Amino acid sequence: MTGMTSTERPFLNRSLAEFGTTIFAEMSALAVRTGAINLGQGFPDTDGPEEIREAAVRALRDGRGNQYPPGPGVPELRAAIAAHQERRYGLTFDPDTEVLVTAGATEAIAAALLALLEPGDEVVALEPYYDSYAACIAMAGGRRVPVTLRPDGDAFRLDLDELRAAVTDRTRLLLVNTPHNPTGTVLTRAELAAIAELAVERDLLVVTDEVYEHLVFDGAEHLPLAAFPGMRERTVTIGSAGKSFSFTGWKVGWVTAAPGLVTAVRSAKQYLTYVASGPFQYAVAEALALPESYFAAFRADMLAKRDLLAAGLAQAGFGVFRTTGTYFITTDIRPLGESDGFAFCRALPERAGVVAIPNAVFYDHREEGAPFVRFAFCKRTGVLEEAVRRLKALAG
After folding, report:
1. Which whole-number Å values give the CA distances from 162 to 127, 175, 295, 356, 364, in the listed order?
2. Alpha carbon of 218 to those of 157, 177, 243, 317, 386: distances in Å?
3. According to the model, what pLDDT value does residue 165 have?
4. Considering 23, 112, 205, 337, which has the largest number of Cβ atoms within 10 A of its Cβ?
């Protein structure tokens, strides 16, 4: 099969033709083929809290969620999400009209963009961006307008003037990700205030991906954009259990927003999965009620792993950018005499027995991301220590 019909029209919708197989699939297959340590894809190699895993087993045995759960999500989880937002951020949401459970944050992003965009609408997004953003904008018929985060010392920064200049009369929506994957940047209060002012001034909707909200380091603070003046009624906030509790396979995400926005997103979501993850929803409801000591220990564990991998990468000769959020480290390969992240990552398993991801896949402006490579540190300490040992081969 060639992927073409007799009329020479490709099978794949033209709006998706540029995307192909994700880099994560390619690099994970490379890890399996070479026996390399996979620091590419961002999933933990240990499960989250035992009591939460047992809560899922209990739900299965008790018959809770084994059949279709309610379309918006089980009431217990919606109430837990609302309680979490109020307890941590002082944001009050009605569990019945302002909370929607999704099949992971990825579906939440897709449903939000499909619901809120029409063909020709422009979406301003912070580049580099998680790969599903571009695909979902394309599926909705929108046009993405990237605003590039650029290196500034040991971190990546947002140019607020560039952001403002990117907004036109055709802009419908801002797509914001903080803590930011892949750069590890956490937007500051001043930056978020400027984004909020711009959204209000230009009457823009905002979709904000906050799935790493519990992973902020070095005194950084996660501040939901919905809490800023004028933003409550125009912001769709996306969260995820996978990143906060290390059960990524459960695919439980959520949206919190004003009733009209939730209704719109639900209208699209119901024709994607309809519902998902029934028993796991009950377990995640219990997870969201865990004491602050769980989140503090989770952050401390990830911080130690960040420091271990960052030190090892620096010793191996990489330029290392400071991660203040997420569980990823972005590196610069130019100190190693390299400049092509794709070629570097495809050769790295044979050279050093480690898999990473070229950041260029997250850019429209590929040249901007060419020398940057991302590593994940959400792995067992012993695995990271072995990866560091292997990477030292790059330093000669």
Report:
1. 12, 15, 35, 30, 16
2. 16, 19, 19, 23, 26
3. 98
4. 112
Tokens of 292: 């602050």
User: Which among 367, 105, 390 is positioned nearest to 375, based on CA atoms?
Assistant: 390
Which residue do the tokens 């394309």 mark?
138
* Residue 72 near residue 100 (C-beta atoms within 8 A): yes
What sign for the dihedral angle of Cα 293, 326, 256, 61?
A: negative
Per the structure block, which two tokens stand in for 122? 């422009």
And the tokens for 32? 């399996």
**179: cis peptide before it, omega within 30°?**
yes
Would the pTM of this model clear 0.85, i.e. be above it? yes
* 8 A C-beta contact, residue 47 and residue 380: no
Q: Which run of H or of E encompasses 7?
A: none
Judge contact between 64 and 278, C-beta under 8 A. Answer: yes
Residue 26 CB partners (closer than 8 Å, separation 6+): none
Please list, in sequence order, all residues whose beta carbon lies within 8 angstroms of the beta carbon of residue 328, skipping any fewer than 6 positions away: 42, 181, 182, 184, 374, 375, 376, 377
- Look up tokens 């540029």; give the residue: 18
**8 Å CB contact between 225 and 192:** yes
**Between vectors from CA 249 to CA 244 and to CA 252, what angle results, nearest 5°?**
60
Q: What is the mean pLDDT of residues 359-379?
A: 96
d(CA 270, CA 121) in angstroms, rounded, equals 23
Q: How far apart are CA 34 and CA 23, in angstroms?
A: 16
**Conformational region of residue 251, where left means phi above 0, alpha means psi within -120 to 50, and beta covers everything else:** left
Whole-number pLDDT of residue 395: 84
Residues 276 and 249: their CA atoms lie apart, in Å, by 12
